[in-house]
Amino acid sequence: MSMDLITKAYQATEEGFFSLVSKQWPMKPQIAAVGSCCLVGVICGGNLYIANLSDSRAVLGRLVKATREVLAIHLSSEHNVGIEAVRQEMHSMHPEDSHIVVLKHNVWRVKGLIQLPHLQKCLESAASTLTCLDASQCHEAAASM
Fold first, then answer.
1. Measured between alpha carbons, how far is 70 from 61 in angstroms, rounded to an integer?
2. Is the sign of the CA dihedral 17, 15, 51, 84 positive or negative?
3. Of 14, 32, 58, 63, which has fewest CB within 10 angstroms of its CB?
4. Which UniProt keywords apply (predicted)?
C-alpha cells in the first residue's frame, strides 16, 4: 500500500469520469457542472493513508480518558474554490485566465460552473473551454493502532 497506489486509483476514476463527460458533452453540456466527492482511508502496516478529493472531510475521533470526551482530529483538508487559498492556487495555475474563478450568485465557482476544481483535463465546446486542476492530495498520518 502506498500513496502512489491511491493516487493512481484516483486518476483512473477521474479518467473514467472525463470519458463519460466527453461522450455526454455534445448532448448534455450541463454534465460538466456535475461534481462529486471522494474520500478514502486505508490502514496498512500501522499507517493510516487518507486521500481526499473535493470537499469531503476525514476526521478521527479520539477518546480523552481524563474527560471521557471525544476529540475530533482533522486528517484531511477541503478542496473548494470557496476557500481563498484554493482560489489563489487556481489563479496561479491559470494566470492567463482572469475568469478561472468567479463569484456567481454569492458562490465562488470554477469558470462559473462548479465549486470543486477537480477535473484534470479540458472540456471543450465551440463556445468555451473549462480548465480545472486535479486537486486530489494524499495525506499520510501515522496511526497508533
1. 6
2. negative
3. 63
4. Membrane, Transmembrane, Transmembrane helix
| Confidence at residue 107, expressed as pLDDT on a 0 to 100 scale | 83
Question: What distance in Å separates the CA atoms of residue 81 and residue 31, rounded to the nearest whole number?
Answer: 19
Cβ neighbours of 143 (radius 10 Å): 16
Q: Where are the domains of the chain?
A: 3-142
Which amino acid is located at 112 in the chain?
Answer: G
| Short-list 69, 81, 74, CA closest to 118 | 81
DSSP single-letter state for residue 31? G
Rounded Cα–Cα distance for residues 35 and 141 (Å) = 27
Q: How many CB atoms lie within 10 A of CB 13?
A: 14
